[in-house]
Amino acid sequence: MTDIRTRKADHIELALQPKHQARCGAGFDRIRFEPNPLPQMSLQDVEFDSYFLDMPIAAPFMIGAMTGGCDNGEIINQHLAEAAQACNIPMSLGSQRAALERGLPQNVRRWAPSAIVLGNLGATQLQQHGVDLAQRAVESVEANALVIHLNPLQELIQPNGDRNWKHVLEAIQHCAEKLNVPVIVKEVGAGIGPNSVKTLMDAGINWIEIAGRGGTNWASIELARNGSEREQEIASPFLDWGMDTIEILPTVHTACPTLNFIGSGGIRNGLDIAICIRLGAKMTALAQPFLAPALISTEAVIERISIFKEQLRWAMFLTGSQKLSDLRKASLQKEVNKGEHG
Ligand SMILES: Cc1cc2nc3c(=O)[nH]c(=O)nc-3n(C[C@H](O)[C@H](O)[C@H](O)COP(=O)(O)O)c2cc1C
């Protein structure tokens, strides 16, 4: 197997192991809704009324970026894409770098002809190969938007990772100017905080996926792959690097209310989705929770989507929120200490 292929296979195997989830937890239990014991509606009245990139979707969450779909990711992507198509839930592809570099077919549109599909490239690939690569990423899968991921800590720990991040912002800005689809910038689990959000907004980015700390821990995954004792010692203080999704969302939403935020990083159920929406997210994304079902079947992914939808419906019902606009105003009990309420 080539480098990128071995890396992807390792990532999938390691991401499934609980020990590579954030040690500190996602902190969603620190935010609680004030229960509304008089919902004054029926559970069936709950409406998700969701749009993403101006298109109607079934619920305000998507399948987060995991694999570009070539090699061992092919079957995973087939199950994810077929489920995305069947449920009208958007799907974010993982990095298309390997497929584009080696001219491999990308079949996602065979399985998801009309679902919203997002392309994906690393920011350092853009810096190295420019807008041409971005255009090929979009065209090769008829992507509805291109996601650019920022992962400087992961690159530092990854053997032979990219350590030159000069001119990355210029590359992103250029891409946003030239592409005829929206550009979404995301992290991979350390979060994008208010200062970086403002920088990206000034560079013309309107959509930001937070991908904060609390879920899949890329420092931990890359450390498990890095056999160098010296590099392990250097990297070990950074195992909890990042900002929690639930801390970032309200801050960036207040700082840049016109920007569109996708809450992600550590979302594990429909109640977490509801919390992100309440904290200012327009949309949410879950990656690792879809990995195990995607290794089984399309039906298993569809069932996971259906459970997340039902949990979101319950959260809305129990806060008396008929629509997402009601959920956005639902009362919270803030910063409840774990266990305080038994
Ligand atoms: C197996 C796996 C592979 C991933 N590959 C990519 C990738 O290629 N591009 C990317 O932008 N993010 C990638 N991610 C990061 C996720 O999209 C997400 O930002 C991160 O895992 C945090 O979300 P989670 O806690 O829901 O997993 C990957 C995640 C997993 C679990």
The CATH architecture would be Alpha-Beta Barrel
Q: How much beta, percentage-wise?
A: 5-15%
Spatial separation of the terminal alpha carbons: 51 Å
Q: Could you name the CATH class?
A: Alpha Beta
The CATH topology comes to TIM Barrel
Biggest sheet, spatial arrangement of strands:
4-11-10-9-8-7-6-5
Q: Supply Rg.
A: 19 Å
Q: Mean pLDDT score, rounded?
A: 93
Helix content: 40-55%
Instruction: Supply the helix-strand structural class.
Output: alpha/beta
Look at the structure and name the CATH superfamily. Aldolase class I
**How many E strands?**
12
Cofactors, ions and other ligands in the entry: flavin mononucleotide
**Tally of helical runs:** 15
- SSE ordering: HEEEEHEHHEHEHHEHEHHHEHEHHHE
Low-confidence stretches: 337-342
Protein traits:
single chain, 342 residues, alpha/beta, TIM Barrel, 8-stranded parallel β-sheet, two-stranded antiparallel sheet, 15 helices, 12% strand, binds flavin mononucleotide
